[in-house]
């Protein structure tokens, strides 16, 4: 069996269409939507609505940690645009999801990341594409467990949940061969982004489950440029499968 795994797609429908080539199935660990591209400020929902110049200003404030100013700027732009901001975001998100799920190969097993809007994405699923969260599926004789979403942060991305809810999903998965999450286990070198120069949040519940159940692999994404892409916990190989929007190539798992 050969499984291709992607995470942090962030709108890369072109590369996603080829991500299943040569594989028996595709696994996607979330963050399908692109709100704003920190490398190209002309890409994403925000610049689509307000232009690249405003996106550059917004990214600059957030990168500098000036989140209150970024939120105030954003609020002013939404007020000037008129209407309900949620409607504008959801309309743009639906267009992205339609492109992503139309391009996504099948069979595909996926969970959502912290920037996703699950209730919108599910509307665009095609036959052969299955969403799992706190659930287990057998692929090629191995048990794959899926835990989606992210933990609460000062960034306030749409699909962040409380630690307790996240831990319940980890517990529901139980013992598996491959544990698939959007965010990493709480191991410092896996959480530090060397370009953004900050630590992202990881899951203590996931790390404890890895120590206790020892799956063969723990796969995740979320940190785009990690200090370390791999770490071993007992017999478990913890692997960041890579920033798919930037790389355009999947991680391959074979057995």
UniProtKB/TrEMBL annotation:
Single Gene Ontology MF annotation: hydrolase activity
InterPro entries: Calcineurin-like_PHP (IPR004843), Metallo-depent_PP-like (IPR029052)
Domain Calcineurin-like phosphoesterase: 1-226
Protein name in UniProt: Metallophosphoesterase
């Amino acid at each position: 069996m050969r499984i291709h795994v992607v995470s942090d797609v962030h709108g890369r429908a072109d590369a996603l269409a080829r991500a299943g080539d040569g594989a028996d199935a595709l696994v996607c660990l979330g963050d399908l939507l692109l709100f704003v591209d920190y490398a190209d400020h002309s890409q994403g929902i925000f610049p689509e609505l307000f232009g690249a110049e405003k996106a550059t200003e917004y990214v600059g404030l957030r990168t500098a940690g000036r989140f209150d100013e970024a939120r105030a700027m954003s609020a002013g732009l939404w007020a000037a645009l008129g209407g309900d901001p949620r409607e504008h975001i959801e309309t743009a998100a639906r267009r992205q999801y339609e492109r992503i799920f139309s391009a996504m190969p099948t069979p595909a097993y996926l969970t959502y990341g912290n920037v996703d809007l699950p209730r919108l994405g599910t509307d665009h699923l095609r036959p052969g594409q299955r969403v799992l969260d706190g659930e287990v599926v057998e692929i090629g004789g191995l048990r794959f467990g899926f835990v989606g979403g992210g933990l609460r942060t000062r960034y306030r991305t749409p699909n962040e949940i409380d630690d307790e809810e996240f831990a319940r999903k980890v517990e529901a998965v139980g013992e598996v061969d491959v544990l698939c999450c959007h965010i990493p286990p709480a191991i410092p070198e896996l959480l530090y982004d060397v370009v953004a120069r900050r630590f992202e949040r990881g899951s203590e519940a996931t790390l404890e489950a890895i120590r206790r159940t020892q799956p063969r692999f723990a796969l995740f994404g979320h940190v785009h440029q990690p200090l370390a892409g791999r770490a071993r916990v007992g017999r478990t190989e913890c692997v960041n499968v890579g920033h798919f929007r930037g790389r355009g190539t999947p991680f391959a798992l074979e057995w």
